[in-house]
Automatic annotation (TrEMBL):
<dbReference type="GO" id="GO:0016597">
    <property type="term" value="F:amino acid binding"/>
</dbReference>
<comment type="similarity">
    <text>Belongs to the DDAH family.</text>
</comment>
<dbReference type="GO" id="GO:0006525">
    <property type="term" value="P:arginine metabolic process"/>
</dbReference>
<keyword id="KW-0378">Hydrolase</keyword>
<dbReference type="GO" id="GO:0016403">
    <property type="term" value="F:dimethylargininase activity"/>
</dbReference>
<dbReference type="GO" id="GO:0045429">
    <property type="term" value="P:positive regulation of nitric oxide biosynthetic process"/>
</dbReference>
<protein>
    <submittedName>
        <fullName>Dimethylargininase</fullName>
    </submittedName>
</protein>
<feature type="active site" description="Proton donor">
    <location>
        <position position="159"/>
    </location>
</feature>
<dbReference type="Pfam" id="PF02274">
    <property type="entry name" value="ADI"/>
</dbReference>
<dbReference type="GO" id="GO:0000052">
    <property type="term" value="P:citrulline metabolic process"/>
</dbReference>
<dbReference type="InterPro" id="IPR033199">
    <property type="entry name" value="DDAH-like"/>
</dbReference>
<feature type="active site" description="Nucleophile">
    <location>
        <position position="246"/>
    </location>
</feature>
Length: 252
């Protein structure tokens, strides 16, 4: 199993921000937290590939937004923020080692953070970063492989996976106020409390669930639901609107 990551740019303080005020950001601390995140991936059997090709680009640590990686194919995204589109060419060569590669083209936009895969279904958030054209292009690319692509309205946060992620094939962790939950009918939904809304972004690692440190009620909720839970501190990266999923592309 491979986890593609990217080093933290020295320019991360100039990152794109949509829903958070800009705060001073400690680069050294952000890098230490990112290293701890990578260590968590390694503990769960992933070989971590760390790229440095886009270190001049402020948001480059958030590699999830550059591609959607599935068993059969990798789809290069066309990020909704124009400043982030320069990240994509640097990601292509590493993904070509593992998968055939397709891409989203103009005028479509698609951020990987808006794509939640559960089994053979991909839920795609229509957000400030992902448009309907990007969703339809993704659907056309993936239908031949047997995937369904379902649209989800996002209205209160940056990406779909800011508000909902999968703990397993049947269970979602969600903050429903930020998205339309109707497309997720039939799933068991564990709702995070309002004061821990950002905890809805969890990272499923084999049989464990990684939760951002500082959200004790969400951690307890997942343990009570039968999950093995680990925490990692990404408090400094969260100042750049980071979640746990956005700093890796998992190639399984």
């Amino acid at each position: 199993m491979i986890a593609v990551t990217h080093g933290v740019s020295p320019h991360i303080h100039r990152c794109e921000l949509t829903h958070r005020p800009r705060e001073p950001l400690d680069l050294d601390l952000a890098r230490r937290q990112h290293a701890a995140y990578q260590d968590a991936l390694r503990r769960h059997g992933f070989t971590v590939v760390e790229l440095t090709v886009n270190l001049d680009l402020p948001d480059s640590v958030f590699v999830e937004d550059t591609a959607v990686v599935l068993d059969e194919i990798a789809v290069l995204c066309r990020p909704g923020a124009p400043s982030r589109r320069k990240e994509v060419p640097g990601i292509r060569p590493v993904l070509e080692r593992y998968r055939p590669v397709a891409e989203i083209r103009a005028a479509g936009t698609l951020d990987g953070g808006d794509v939640l895969r559960v089994g053979k279904t991909l839920f795609v958030g229509l957000s400030s970063r992902t448009n309907l054209d990007g969703l339809e292009q993704l659907r056309a690319l993936l239908t031949p492989y047997g995937y369904q692509v379902k649209a989800v309205s996002v209205h209160g946060c940056l990406h779909l996976k800011t508000a909902v992620t999968a703990a397993d094939e049947d269970t979602l962790v969600a903050y429903p106020e930020w998205i339309d939950m109707e497309p997720f009918h039939g799933f068991r939904v564990l709702e995070v409390p309002k004061e821990e809304a950002e905890a809805a972004n969890v990272l499923r690692l084999n049989r464990s669930v990684l939760v951002a440190e500082g959200f004790p009620r969400t951690e307890k909720m997942l343990r009570d639901a039968g999950f093995s839970v680990e925490t990692v501190d990404i408090s400094e990266l969260r100042k750049a609107e980071a979640g746990l999923t956005c700093s890796s592309l998992l190639v399984t």
